[in-house]
Structure formats: C-alpha cells, structure tokens
C-alpha cells in the first residue's frame, strides 16, 4: 500500500487532516495524484523546451508562455480529476466547460501582461535611442514595471554622471589650452 493510500485510510479514523468524501478511497486519491503528477511533469518538460526555443524572444512572450504552461497544467489536472472522480456526465461536462472558460480568461490575462511588458520595453528602448539624437536621457512617460523602472533610474544616474564627467573633461581641456597659450 502506498503512502498516499495509507494516509487516506488512516486520516478518517484519526479524526485527522484529510477527510475523503464518501465513496472516495485511498486508491482513488492515488490515481488522481498520479494523473496530476504526470500532467505536471509533461507540462514542465514542454514548458522548458518551449522556453529554450524562445530564448532570444521578448520577455513578454516568454512570460506569457510561463502563464500558459501553468494554466494548462492546472486545468488539465482539474480535468483529469473531473474525468476520474465525477461519475455524472452532465456534472462532469459542466465542470469541464468551466475549466475551458477559466483557461481562456487566463490566456487573455497572459497576453495582456506580455503585451504591456513589451510596450514598456519599447518605450524604454525609444528613450535610450533618443540619447543618441538629443544627447539627453529622458525617462519614458507612464508607469514602467519595477525592473524596467529600476533600469530607467540607473540610466538616468549614469547619464548624469557622464554629463558631469564630460563637463569636467571640457573644463580640463580649456585649462590645458589656456596653459599652452601662456
């Protein structure tokens, strides 16, 4: 008897933490746990492979993949539970329809997060490219994600230090010319 089955068998008698619904046995719990673990392993392997393929792509796309893989594993596990444990076909179908709706909602959120991160990245890149044209770094308008806001603040500080160093260099060059002229 496996650990899961022993725990499930002992818990109701011990008045313990794990109370199984009527008619659910430790073996049922073992099957559900095995199915969920198998689905999770497949999702992890597929997610890692997909992330390796997208290594050079934007972080927004990769973030959307992480969310999609997490959702797919969760929804597939819940679907497996529904198939394994819900005997009534109508109830099972309703449960699976809810899972599809939840999956679609999660995909919409993942796409939204990915696109907003990509937009913020493009704004920061445009601000950096303007330095080459104007010589002045201006942080992008709007709210950036924390990581990009930190990067923007670091760029501002570096730009200020470069400006100070450039002014000092110009003053030293002017002094050198004055000395040579004397």
Helix content, binned percent: over 70%
Largest sheet: none
Shape: rod-shaped
User: What's the overall average pLDDT, rounded?
Assistant: 80
Q: In sequence order, what are the helices and strands, one letter per element?
A: HHHHH
Structural class: mainly alpha
> Regions with pLDDT < 50 over 5+ consecutive residues?
none
Radius of gyration: 29 Å
Determine the strand fraction and express it as a percent band.
Answer: under 5%
Cα(first) to Cα(last) distance is 98 Å
Counting DSSP H or I runs of 4 or more residues, the number of helices is: 5
Question: How many β-strand runs?
Answer: 0
Written description of the protein model:
- The protein has 182 residues and is mainly α.
- 81% of the residues lie in helices and 0% in strands.
- It has five helices and no strands.
- It has helices at 3-13, 26-53, 59-85, 89-134, 146-181.
- The radius of gyration is 29 Å and the shape is rod-shaped.
- It starts with a helix and ends with a helix.
- 8% of the residues are buried.
- The model has no long low-confidence stretch (mean pLDDT 80).
């Amino acid at each position: 008897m496996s650990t899961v089955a022993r725990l499930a068998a002992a818990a109701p008698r011990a008045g313990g933490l794990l109370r199984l619904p009527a008619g659910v046995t430790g073996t049922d719990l073992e099957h559900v746990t095995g199915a969920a673990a198998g689905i999770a392993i497949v999702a992890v392997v597929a997610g890692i492979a997909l992330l390796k393929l997208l290594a050079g792509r934007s972080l927004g796309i990769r973030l959307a993949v992480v969310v999609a893989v997490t959702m797919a594993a969760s929804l597939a596990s819940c679907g497996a539970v529904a198939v394994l444990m819900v005997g009534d076909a109508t109830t099972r179908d309703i449960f699976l329809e809810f899972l599809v709706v939840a999956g679609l909602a999660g995909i919409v959120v993942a796409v939204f997060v990915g696109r907003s991160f990509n937009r913020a990245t493009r704004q920061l890149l445009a601000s950096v490219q303007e330095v080459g044209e104007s010589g002045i770094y201006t942080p992008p308008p709007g709210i950036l994600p924390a990581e990009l806001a930190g990067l923007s603040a670091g760029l501002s500080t570096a730009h200020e230090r470069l400006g100070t160093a450039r002014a000092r260099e110009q003053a030293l060059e002017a002094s050198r010319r004055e000395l040579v002229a004397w």
